[in-house]
């Protein structure tokens, strides 16, 4: 199979990006109220879509790797950096009401207030770039575990972890459906 490069790659990126944005809108996760509802534990649409995407995407990636069409590029597990980044991401998402993908989809759907957050994301990215030398020297070494994957860390095979994730997601979906039925 020949690699996709150049103009073909740009066309595919535009097509997949458009499809992704359409699906975000269709699933209502580019809607501010849906995301805020998730944080208020009133609307679990975002969590349902994310779990479904993780399972479908994980299955697709696993198949691509197994058939030799893709390979893993493991990034270092720097625990402090990951924890701080996750906390900043979460705080930003709660204050803003969007994650980066849903913000761009909201802008594509005509939401002007989402533009403010994109300006914040760009500002944060620039600040990170300018402070990276300090981050590299001060934060990245704390809790640095190297290039390790979850199966090696837990001593469980990747298919077993993926199977457990599927069972947990299905149980969660069933629990949410039961809760929805009881409220009616």
Describe this structure in words.
The chain has eight helices and no strands. By secondary structure, it is an all-alpha fold. Helix 1 crosses helix 5, helix 3 packs antiparallel against helix 8 and helix 5 runs antiparallel to helix 6. The mean pLDDT is 90.
Could you give a short description of this structure?
Helices cover 73% and strands 0% of the residues. The chain is mainly α and 184 residues long. The radius of gyration is 19 Å and the shape is globular.
Helix content: over 70%
Order of helices and strands: HHHHHHHH
Q: Outline, from the CA principal axes?
A: globular
Tell me the number of strands: 0
Q: Report the sheet-strand fraction.
A: under 5%
Largest sheet descriptor: none
In angstroms, what is the radius of gyration?
19 Å
How many helices? The count is: 8
Taking pLDDT < 50 over at least 5 consecutive residues as the criterion, the unreliable ranges are none
**Average pLDDT over all residues:** 90
N- and C-termini, Cα separation: 52 Å
- Structural class of the secondary elements? mainly alpha
Features of this protein?
mainly alpha, 184 residues, single chain, globular, 8 helices, 73% helix
Write the layout of secondary structure elements.
Elements: H1 6-26, H2 32-39, H3 45-66, H4 79-96, H5 100-108, H6 114-138, H7 150-154, H8 158-183
Helix pairs in contact: 1-5, 3-8, 5-6
């Amino acid at each position: 199979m020949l690699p996709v490069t150049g103009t073909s790659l740009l066309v595919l990126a535009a097509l997949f990006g458009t499809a992704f944005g359409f699906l975000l809108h269709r699933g209502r996760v580019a809607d501010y109220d849906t995301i805020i509802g998730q944080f208020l534990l009133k609307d679990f649409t975002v969590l349902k879509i994310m779990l479904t995407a993780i399972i479908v995407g994980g299955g697709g990636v696993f198949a691509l790797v197994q058939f030799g069409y893709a390979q893993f590029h493991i990034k270092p597990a720097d625990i402090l950096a990951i924890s701080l980044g996750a906390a900043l991401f979460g705080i930003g998402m709660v204050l803003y009401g969007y994650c980066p993908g849903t913000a761009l989809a909201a802008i594509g759907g005509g939401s002007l207030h989402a533009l403010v957050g994109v300006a914040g994301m760009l500002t944060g990215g620039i600040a990170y770039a300018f402070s990276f030398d300090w981050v590299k020297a001060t934060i990245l070494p704390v809790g640095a575990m190297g290039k390790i994957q979850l199966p090696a860390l837990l001593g469980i095979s990747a298919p077993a972890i993926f199977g457990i994730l599927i069972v947990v997601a299905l149980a969660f979906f069933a629990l949410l459906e039961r809760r929805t039925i009881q409220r009616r």
